[in-house]
Each structure stands twice: as C-alpha cells, then as structure tokens.
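Bench notes, afternoon.
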Amino acid sequence: MKTMTRLVPGPTQRVDQSRQIPFTYRGQRMSGLIGDSLATALFANGVRIFSRSLKRHRPRGLYSLDGESSNCLMAVDGIPNVRAETTPLREGLAVGPQNVVGSPEWDWLGFLDRLDWLMPAGFYYRLFHKPAAVWPLALKRIRRAAGIGRVDPQVSLPGRYDELFLNAEVCVLGGGPAGLSAALAAAEQGLRVVLFEARPWLGGFYDWRTREYAPGQSLHERGRELARQVGEAAGVRVFSHAFVNNLCGDNLVTAFQVGGPGEAFSERYIEVRARSVVVASGCLERPLVFENNERPGVMQAGCAHRLARTYGLLPGQNAVVSVGDDLSLEAALDLAEAGLNLAAVADCRPEGQDPGLIEALLNRSVPFMSGWAASSAHGRKVLEAVTLRRLDGKGENCLACDLLIASAGQAPASGPLSLALAKLAYDQHTGFFLPVELPPRLHAAGRLLGYADPAAVEASGRLAGLAAALDCGAPAAQALAQAKKTLAGLPGPARGCNLVFGPDLGRGGRSFVCFDEDGSLKEIEESIRQSFDLPELAKRFTAIGTGPGQGGVPGQNLPLVMARLKGQEPGSLIPTTVRSPLVPTLMATYAGPKHQIFKRSPLHQEQEALGGVFRRIGVWKRARYFSQDFTCRQEIENVRNNVGLIDVSTLGKFRLHGPDALKALQRVYISDMSRMKEGRLKYSGMCNQDGNLVDDGVVARLGEGDYYFTSSTVRAGETIEWFRYQTRFDGWDFHLVNLTDALAAINLAGPRAREVLAKVTEADLSNEAFPFMACQEVTLAGQVRARVLRLGFVGELSYELHLPASQAQWVWNLLLEAGREWGIRPFGLEAQSVLRLEKGHVIIGQESEARTNLLDLGLGFLWDREDTASQKVGAPALRLAQDQPDRLKLVGFKMDGPTQTPADGSLIVEGEEIRGFVGTCRFSATLGQSIGLALARADLAGEGGRLNIYQNDGHEGGRAVQTFTATVVKPPFYDPEGRRLRM
C-alpha cells in the first residue's frame, strides 16, 4: 500500500489538506484529512481491496461513495458492518476488513470462487434435503457461513444517541438543486420546512461539478449559493448527513442523522409528521453488467469524479471509460483535465450524446467509441485490463488500465416513493421506472423524474415545493401556475440508456447483478429455468437484493435483466418490493437516549428531604421506602398505632359532569351508580369486554349530573379515551376533565388521623357528620380548599385530601407539624402494600393478570346484574363466566412456616402441573406471620386447602430451588369486621 498524493486544493474540495487525522487499519498506522470519509482515507493510503464477497470470497473494492453495496463494509472499533463510504473519518479509529480469512489480499477462502459450479442458485434448498440426515449437518455450516461481520459481546458502543420528533408543513427528502429549490419555494409561502440530505453537505450533484451553470458561475458555485439561501431562509430546518429510512402512512418520515465534530450526539433518530412531502432524492448510477464487473478498480463514474473533485484523489493512473449517459462523459472529461490518462471512452449509446462533450474529448486526443461497451475486466485480484466490444459484435479492443469507469446510465433513487406505495411504470424515453400515481400530498421532483438540465431540475423542484405549499393551504395557486409554465419551456426529461448488459458475456457466472450476494447473470438464468421467472421470485431463489445494500446495486437492473433474458420488452417486469429501513441503522440509534423520562409528584422534594427512597412506578417516580429497612416495619407500625401520611398524587383524578354523565358512569362502571347519594363515595371497577378487571377506584357524587372519581395510577392516562371509546356511538352530552396533574392527593391514615386533621380544619369530622365512604369540601388552616374522601385502603381510619398541586407542599408540612405530638411520619408504597395486603385488598396487575375477571377476584358483589339497559362493559362475558368453574380464583393464604416468605410470582404446583401463582406475599409484623394473596385453581381455593409453592431463584453457577407449603384462609387477615376504618 502506497499513500497517494492529493491533487492541488480546489474550490470543489471538501477536505482540509492542512489537517491530518490518524487512524489504524489492520494495526497499521495511517492518516487521512478532515472531511474524508473512512473509505476515501483508506483509498488515499493505497487500499484497493476493501473486503471479500459473501459466498465466493471474491475481492471487492471501492465502487461507489454512497453505500449502495456491501463492498466497503468494515469493522470499526469492534463494531461490524460499518459503511466506510458514508462514515466520517475520526481520530483514533481502529479499522479492519470483514469476511476475510487471512487478509483482503490473500484470503484462504478465495478458492471458493473456482467452485461456483457447486453453488448454483438456491443450492442450499436443492442439495441438502436428501437424505434427511444431511440437513442438520449442512444447516450448521450454512448458518456459520451466512452473514458478514462478527459481533463481539464484550464491545461497548460509545457515544450518545439522541432523538427528535418534529412537525412541519413540508418535508423535503434530498438536498440537491431540486430539493433546495422545493424548500425555498415552500418557505416563501411562510411554511415550516424540514429538509434531509444524506451527504454531509448540500448541493447534490452540483457540488463537485465545474461545468458552467450560467455565465461567470459554475455548477458547484450555484449549488453553494442555493445552500446559502436555504440556510438563511426563515422556517427551513436542514439536517445534513441524515439518511431517510422510511416514508409511510400520512406522510410520516423517519431518518437518522450522523453527528459531526463538536455535536452533542453520535447519531440521532428523527421523526417528522409532515402535511406534504417532496421527494427529490436524485439518481443512482445503474451498474453495467459485464464479466468481472465488480473487480477492484472498476468504479462508478460519480465515484471517480467525486474522488478527484471532492476529496482531491486521482482514482487511477490509466483509465478506460464505459458509460451510457452525458453526466458520465462530463466526469470523464473533467477527470482528464485533472490529470487522469484516458485510454478510451466507450459510450454504449449509438447516438444522442452531447456533441460539446465529444468534441472536448477528441480535442484532448481521447479516443471516443460510440456503440461500444465493456465486455470483460481482467486481472487476478485487481483490474489490469479491460476488453471493449461493439454492441453489434463487429469489433473488439483490449486495453491495459488500472481503472475502469463503468456505468449503464442513471436510475432514479425511488425508494421513498416505493415505501409510500406510489405506482411506478417503465418509461422507454428515460429508461426509468417513473411514478405514474402518487399518494395524496406526496410530490416528486428533479432528476428522479428524468430531468438532467440544471434549470429544469431546479424548476421541477420549485414546482413541487409550491404544490406542497398548496396542500398546506398556502395561497400558492398563481405561483404554481407560473412554475408549470416555466418548467414547460425548459428541456424535458433526458433520453436514457436502455443497455442492460454488455456484449458477449459467455457463461455469465462472473457477471454480477448483485454484489452483496454474489448474484450473477448465470443465477438469474437458472432461476428462470426453474420457473422463478418474476423478480420477486428470483429475489428469494437467488437472494439477489437481500443484502446490506438494500438492493442499491441490483434494484432496477434485476427486472431489466430478467425481461431481456426472457425476450420481453423492458418494463414488462417491475422492481422488487422496497422495504424499510432504506439504510442500515445502529440499534442504539433506534433505542435512543438513555433518558429516564418520568413524572414527579408535587411532593417529590418534600419526600426526598425526609429520606424517601424512590422507585420507578409506571411513568412516575414514587417513594417506596423511608429508610434502609426495606421491610418498612416502623412505617407499618406507625400507621397501625399512631398516624402516617403517604403521597397518592399519582392517582388518576377526574371530574365528569353533564346531563348524560350518569349514563356514561353506568356504561363504564360495573356497579349500579344511579343510587349514589350526594356527598357519598362508591367503590367500583371497570371491566373490559372480556369481563376482566382493568381499573378500580372510588366515585363521589358532587351534585346532580356532577361526579368526581379516581382511577389507578397506571390507568390514569387511558381513562378519558376509555370513556370516549365506550360511548362513541351514543351521542351523549357529558364532559370529562382530567385533573390528575392539576391536583395533588395526600392520604392521612391511622387511629390518630382524625385528631391530626381536626387541628387544621374547623369542619366537623365526627362519624355522624363525616362517616366512612363520605366526601366533603373543607378548608385547611383557613386558606386551602380541599376535597376530603374518607376511605380505608390500608385498614385504618383514613382521610384522602385532594387539593391544588401548587399548594401540596404547604399542606404536607402543615399536616406533619399538626401530627408531631403523635409521632406522625411518612410511609411509602411498600408499607402501603403490606397494610392493604393485611386487609385483603387487591392491586390490579399484582393479584390479577390478563385472564382474571371480576368474579375470579371475589368482587362479583360489585356487579349490578339487573342492569342490562346500560350495556355495561364486560357484563355479557361475566354472565358466561359464571358457569366456568375451572378458573383461577383469588385466595388468601398463611405460610406454614411463619417466617417463610416466597417471592411474588412464585408458582403454585401440584406434581408437575402449574395450578396458579402467588400475587403478593409478605411477612406481617402485625400478625406475626407471613401472609399472601394468590390466584389458584378452583379446586385448591377452598378454605383450609393446601398450596405447594415453588420458587426458583436462578443464579450464576447453578439453580436454587425452594418449596413452601401454605394453608388457604379467607381474607381479610386483619380487622375482618372493619371496625378500625369506621372508628
């Protein structure tokens, strides 16, 4: 490997030749420049064989610069399958080749290329199924050989992975001249525009071209002028080095952006919901199919051109050009001016070339061969010569070279359109599969439609941008009509090249349609013979187009090749289905940042100051303990003997009012809500259509048609949609307001609770004035109005105070001060869980699962069986379930060993059969033994029954199994008459 000398810095170059970046390749120290990609840095250091192919281990080199194939997939810092062409060079990268046994130059598995006759299309389906005993052995070998790259579980992925979720009126895909013009046109109408460009800079195919755009201005200067205008336009947000992965229903665009130097992210996922989308993704080069067309040294015209003009690297010394479009001829001429020796330029088109380009080539004494194309590339590992042949078979010429610039012309990068389910049809004039029917509010522009003239490309973009603006309601009709008129006066779509493959391909076994999967012309012929004669079938039979390049190389060629081999017209077959993601993406990018996104209650800081130990509970962070004693014994004893308080602000809190509010309650709640008295509470539950309990809570009647109710913490975010869904066809008049975040809630519980509350309010708290399951509005300390619910979830005298969230801290401290003489202290969720367990109260999701209905939990008394008019949700299923005896039932149990406490979720077994599971089990200091609630099969649920509990504590190095026995008892375990909560 020999380091190359860069070309003299020029206005199109994107590298800084004054700044070197060190990196290593195969342990060897190398350096590149600021602005290099990893691929161009390796090329500058003399690397020509980047990898070996998947099945046949053929040498593969730099072919394109946009990652259309797996040729340049590398292992970088232990991460496999990194696309070297699109990865910016960073200091200290450790780079290595993939799919190589030995080195890229000397691969021990290179002999497989000579055994291609043993690997016909679909060989693993056809050769290893008989006798049957062969398949398991072959399967192991095939799986071991499948795929490229090796995952190292010990490697950690550095960097920061972020995400953005945006809304915009217009989203433009592509930052070339068409995309930039579309963005400017939409921005002129006062709209918000998001623009994505895959390359690190804007300008598209203008960026490296020195040809004149207008007198005194070159194409690259025009590209940078458009980029500047977009950068200065109000309302346009540009994401460069951002790859669009998907365009799907209702114009949802997903992309990921690679972070540049100094940016706060390595990659970030971006999602945009746009009113209208403009696809201006430009073109790819359609590979020319000929023998050894993927040999290192064979390169696309755009790749060779950009190497010279963008990166200052001459792609070779002696070159032959075999192309089929004017853009490639322009590249050949420009490369000759940069110092590349051209032995010949072959153009497969018999006519139609730009005469100015031909004249310029001839003036440089470059032989121009119209109607010729490459037939075969020669060289054992890298290119050494190429054979050119006339398409009519009347001439042949073999030329020595180290670079073959090969292209069959352009092909539209229509992946986003295909993902959006646009209909495409083959156009004979352009040789493109063009959109003939687009979904609503989706527009295509620029080279994607076959335009090649710069003015027409920009006019097409402006037209699409104005059409998108019109979709968004902007007054753009007059400007749109003028844009159509302007475009009509410019050159239309350019005539394309219809050549599919070069002349005299011989057996076709080394003429590749798909580089990723070694998919050759021979395999396609075999697929057709086996009746897999449609592109979708051939794709599966041969694996063509299923590799990491996502079909970038074979995309348009496959249907054209198959049509030609079948003797059909081009376009009689269509390309295979395009699926997302269009570009491979790191899993870390999809995973996003490691943000712990959660909500805090208004009392979070107050509890933190008192030593609260917080845990994630759904979307909330809640205090689970208030000491390092995770049994919470002191917290529990204080509630039982004195008084405690707990933050329950996370409960869902809702106000339901209106003429039909009661009808909605009757529909959604399983109980009879019509008999509720004003100022009283009712406990009930919500069921789904299967009769399964999905939520429970209390409902207070505030007045005629006016109710206040609570839901569980987990269910709070879904309650409004649940009411709306269940009443969507009734036309009822009611209003439901979510007050969950607007209100805080504090539960004051314990035998001293009345005395504490009495110190801060003048309200009558006696049993007669404020009985159990009542609700009152009170004033606290003469300042704060609170709705107080008298409940008993923890089994003690208890008041739940609901008040404005902004006043919660003041009230919390007020209660702590008022209860100081009785030893008041906060308690957390774990203590609450033990207290409610002693009372036999269930927690949904803890003592229930997806199949558990209301009857299974022993809550059938809540169901109003007489009410059929309300069409209560879940009632029909509950009627059927009444006659199903063999179900899991909620039971209470006491452990036979008083201190034995199996873990939540432990299994209940009978022999080898699982007969249920433990919901919650804790040691109760109040009762002096371990108790629990479980779901068990009905035949075990009888009082006095025996439960065998199995707990498997798997750990490294072995399995620890514990078995327990318990006796079924009837809950509640504590104060079964409920005297304490009514005291």
